[in-house]
Each structure stands twice: as C-alpha cells, then as structure tokens.
Amino acid sequence: MLSNKSESVKVLIRCRPFNQTEIINHSIKCIDIQQLDNKNRQCTIKLISPKRYRRRISRLFRFDSFYDENHPTEHIFQDFIQSLVSDVTLNGYSGTVFAYGQTGSGKSWTMAGCQCQSENGLISIAIENVFNLIHQSNYEHEFTIKCAYLEIYNEELHDLLLPRNSSKLSSRLELRENPRSSGVHITNLTWKNVYSIDECLKFKRFGDLARTMGSTQMNRDSSRSHTMFSLSIQYQNNSETKLFRQGKLNFVDLAGSERQIKTGASGQQLLESAKINLSLSALNKVISSLVQTNTTHIPYRDSKLTRLLQDSIGGTTKTIMIACISPSEDNYDETLCTLRYASRTKNIRNTPIINENSSYVLLQQYAEEIQRLRAIINSSNIHMHSLSRSVGLNETKFDDQHSLKTICDRQISSENSPATMAKCQRSVSCQTMSILTATVISSTQTTYDIHDKDSKQIIILFDENQQSYEFIAWHSCQLSPKSYQKLIILVKENKNENSWLGTLIANTNEKQSLIWKNHLYHRQHQLQLSKQTDSIITHFAIEETIDSRSSSPTLSLILYTSSNYIILNNNIFLSLSYKNLPINNHFITLKEQTGSIYYLSDMLYSLSKNELLVFKLDQNYHYRLHHIILNEKFSLENNEQVDVEHCCCCLNSENEALKTKFISSSHFLSFINMSCEIEEEQEENKANMHLINVDNNILCFE
Ligand SMILES: Nc1ncnc2c1ncn2[C@@H]1O[C@H](COP(=O)(O)OP(=O)(O)OP(=O)(O)O)[C@@H](O)[C@H]1O
C-alpha cells in the first residue's frame, strides 16, 4: 500500500429550482452567489435571513463549487467526479460521493437522476465512465467489476440486491471492524459481478425498487433510508510482478433531515424520521470531533451510518460531499444548518491511499504464512488428540474469516474428578487484536458458550450499542450462585490509544447463551491508563475487600498494574492504591544486575529451579516476554525475547464455588507455543502443580 498526502474533503453546493408550492407561494430566494472562480470553481455564497426575522443577517460561506438550476448533473460530474472515477478505476483509490441536505432538496435527483426529465444521475454517469475507461485501456490489464447496493433503514442494514422474495430479516447485514483497514467490513453483502454498463444499471434499478420510499408533505418520493451503491474495480496487470489494485467507489444518498411539523410525519414515518435525524446528528458529531484539534475520540460507533462512512470521513478515501439546498426563504433555517454542516466537513482531511499489492509479493507472504501455520497445526494436533480422549470436548467452531489463526484458550475444571484437567489450545489470530473464545465448564459441569447474536463464537466483543471492544482479559465470578452467573470481561475500546477500561458483564440463567451488556461505566468512568495510573493493567482478579464506608466485606474487581492496585467496587471507582497489601502477592519483581526490572506474572513463572518466563516493560509500556534462566549466582541470563502487547491472567480463586481457572493472553503470546496443558501431578506434594509446555521446555506453575 502506498500512502499519499492528506487532502481535504471536497464540498460542492447544489441548489435546486423552486418547486411548485414555492412558486405558487411566491417564495423569495435567500441564496446568492457572491464570487465564482471560473477556473477552479471555488465560490463564495451568501445566505440572507428572511424579512420575518427581526435582524436581517447575511452570511458568507466558501465552498469548492456551486451549482444551481442552470447546471445539469453532468456538469458536476465533469468538474469533480470524473477524476475521482478515474483514480478509483485505474489507480486503486477508494472514493466516496455523498449527498447531504434537508428532505426534498434534490439528493436523489443528483445521485439517481430523473427518468421523467431524462436527466442522468451521478451513479449512472459514473458507471458508464468506468466501463469507458476500461475499454480505453485496451484491456492491457485484467479488470473485475462488481457492484453492491445497501440501505440503512431504522438503524438496520439491508442488502438491496437480494431476490425480491427475501424478507427484511434475511436481507439484514452486519457491520464488523475490518482488521486490515481503518474501515468496516459488511458481512454477507451481495457483490454482483458485472460485465457491461447495462448489466450494472440493471442491478442499480433492481436495488432502487427495493429501497424504502415514502410520501411526505415535503417530498412525494422521499427516501426513508440512507443508501449506498458501491462499485469495486479490481485490476491486475499481466506483467511478471502481477501488480494488483482494487479501487472502490461509493455513492451515498442520505435520507433528508426532517422536521415533523413540515413533513406531517406520524406513526411509522415519525419513527423513521427520528432514526434518520439521530443518525444524521451522529454524523454531525463525528464531523465536529474530526475538525476539533483537541479531540482524541471520534464517535464513529454511535450509529450504523457513521461506522459505514468511517473510512470516508477522516480515513483513507477520496471524498466529495454534495450539500443540496432549497433556494427558498421558507427553508432558511434548514439551509443554514446544511451550509454550516458542509462548511465544517470541508475542514476534514483524509489521507487517500492506493490499495495495491503485487501478487508476487503476496505469494511469498502466503508461502511463509502456510509454513508457519503448518508448524502450529502439527503441534496442536497432538494435543487435540489427547484432549478429546481425556474429556471428550466438542470441537470449537470459528467464524470462517478467522478460522486459520484464531486464539482459543480452553479450560476445564471438574469438581467430581480427582484430577484437575485443563487443556489449552491456541492458534494465532489473523486479527490485530487479541481474541479469546471459550467454553467454560463450571464445577457442576454446566456448559456456557460465549456466542454473539448469530451464534458464532465471539471474535470481538460487542455491547448492546454495537460498540466493539478489544479483549484484554477475563474472569469468571459467581456473585449470586443461586440465580445467575456473571462473567466479567476486561475490555479496551478498539483503536483508541487512550482508551478506557471497563468490564462487560454477562448475566445468564443456567444453560442459556450469554448476552453481553455494557453494564459498567457506559464510557463515563474512563481509566486513562497513561494519564491517571501511568501504568498498564497486567492482570486482574475478583477478591473480597472491605468497603471503607460501610466496613462490610464486598466483592471487588481489582486491577493490578506494574506499580499499584486499582480497586473497583460495586461499579464505583473507589481507590487508587492499596499500599498495605504487598504487591509481591501477585508479582515478583526481579532486578537484573544491569538494573533492568522484570515483573513476574503469576501464570508464567517457573517452579522448576531456574527457569522463568517474565515480562519486562519497555519505555512504551509494551511488554516483552523473556525466557530467563537463573544461574547459580541467581543472576539472570536472558536467552529469549518475544514481543508481547499485554498479558493478563486470572488468579486461581480460593473460593470453593469458583473452581474454574482461565488463561488468557494476547495473540503475540500465542506464538511462543500454542499448546498448554494442565494436568494432575501424581506426587502428593505437587497436587496443585500444573504443567505448561512452552517450546518443548516444560515449565510449571501453581
Ligand atoms: N436539480 C434539480 N432540478 C430540477 N428539479 C429538482 C432538482 N433537484 C430536485 N428537484 C425536484 O425536487 C424534488 C425532490 O427531490 P429529491 O427527491 O431528489 O429530494 P431528496 O433530497 O432526495 O429528498 P428526500 O430526502 O426526502 O429523499 C424532485 O422530485 C424534483 O422535482
């Protein structure tokens, strides 16, 4: 992937002609072009407040271009969209054109055109242009063109290219983080291969018929959903390097912002309207956050629309916004709102990248990957075999996308059996984040599977607002044994350096699938690891502590950092440190002769006389795993170093009701070796000792 310079989102204004009602009412024009540079089309436009307002104000706005009723859509295409289409088709860029504006302002007219007046919309002109460019290239390259069409209706994504008889339910799509880019991935979206302009237009028309439309007082054919029509253009050249590029072009026709008083919406339409306005206000928030210099958190996850547009606003896509307005004074407030929105958007900077790869390089990468995975499979096969013989486990099924390299930590603990058995099988995640799927078998042998909504094993954790989190560690705790079990998971919001830590708590009745709830802080209590604690959470546990206010014992979530404790009690952030508890209960701090400090994790230390696995913090608070051999003089010889992003472990609880013990680690850890066994030791004095097999070095831990 080649990176280019950043560029701002281009913003064009399109003002429709007066409509019939406005003509009948002798509406007055409130918009005027002040300046227009004929060469680069930059313009200043003036918006004048209506006479009915006490103070008449003229406001000036600068944009990349302005089009009124004298300009057909073709002009917009020639001035701005054509070069974008060419960049996407021939150079592998991603491009997005989105139309924004109040209801009835001409968004669909601009994007889809109008058959009655035989005015083509941008989508059909662009489709034609893509195929013409390919023809002109004399087929030196091999092109594959696909199209997709979706809508967001009432905060749900629907595939518009599914057969007519499919129900709304079956056309529902899910958004997932795309691990390989800053954007999102839409699972199961239909991508149709297209070989001609007509075929592509046919799919476009097919989708048009499926999109949700309605009639309001403001617009007879009002879009009740946001739609996105996408073209994917892949090309591969035939030379030895087999250069491969993939461009994607999106046309987004947003539903219009509406006022109930003007549209006369009621019932279902009022509900639609509320959802439309909510998602547009989420988009507004994202735009505002992106242009504020001191904001680190961009609330992309507040709505489906903002997640869908994540890469187009503030990402790696070349983006053009077309803000549609009405010329009439009657719509002054809405027009002012749109122009402000558009003006803010103009300050957003994207960093477009060329999506390319040489097949030659790709093949080499694949070959190395296959070799590495073979080694993993060979080693884990042996363990899988012994695992199934001893406890008869069901095979864990992974999402196809992640099957090759998904971490699976698995632990079983049986009260009835004299032997405490635990087997842990891991493979490396192809995601950039740590993943853990698990089957927990409690002391009563009840099985809880952690599933997401589609009954797939969890890959990334989502809360009830569809916010996704990076998994850090987990812990099981039976707070109220009679009624339900809670699993508490420590998570980190994805992609945000200064992210907060919270827990997701899942309640379940026995035998029911767990439902994840962001029970804890709702993102209000943020533990800024770098600022507040100046440290990284290394592991955590649930322990009984004394509530300082009530003096009664209470269960607390205790987060351990390399330097102190953080106690979270009853979901309230209680105290920062607990100095009278020795830190060495959980960490052994080793100081090397050179002055280097090692923090010994409780899970990975060795009971064999002189071998240790320890974590060393570097200046960036990244952990490195060291395999250390203690020599006779108790100094340390560092003979192996493995990158570890974070490591979290749970303590083996003393509580009789909690005979489960979990192992978790980041995926970086998993490549030290994917197999981990915990078995009963024969000798009495080693009854609680477990074995961990790391790269053929047998280590032990308690
Ligand atoms: N550039 C234009 N030239 C002529 N008529 C136009 C133009 N733009 C819009 N109109 C008229 O305005 C009407 C409403 O336009 P359109 O349906 O495109 O609005 P919209 O912004 O997509 O509304 P909604 O958000 O409700 O879907 C059209 O039916 C057409 O009559």
TrEMBL record:
**GO: which molecular function terms?**
ATP binding; microtubule binding; microtubule motor activity
Which Pfam family is one of those matched by this entry? Kinesin
Signal peptide (from-to): none
Q: Where is this gene product found?
A: Cytoplasm, Cytoskeleton
Q: By its UniProt entry, which SUPFAM superfamilies does this protein fall under?
A: P-loop containing nucleoside triphosphate hydrolases (SSF52540)
All copies of the Kinesin motor domain together span 8-348
Going by the UniProt record, its keywords in alphabetical order are:
ATP-binding, Coiled coil, Cytoplasm, Cytoskeleton, Microtubule, Motor protein, Nucleotide-binding
Q: Per the record, what is one GO cellular component?
A: microtubule associated complex
Q: Which Gene3D superfamilies match?
A: Kinesin motor domain (3.40.850.10)
Asked whether the UniProt record includes Manganese among its keywords, one would answer: no
Cytoplasm found in the keyword field:
yes
Gene Ontology process terms (BP)? microtubule-based movement; mitotic spindle organization; spindle elongation
- Domain of life of the source: Eukaryota
**What residues bind ATP, as annotated?**
101-108
Family classification: Belongs to the TRAFAC class myosin-kinesin ATPase superfamily. Kinesin family.
Name recorded for this polypeptide = Kinesin-like protein
Organism of provenance: Rotaria socialis
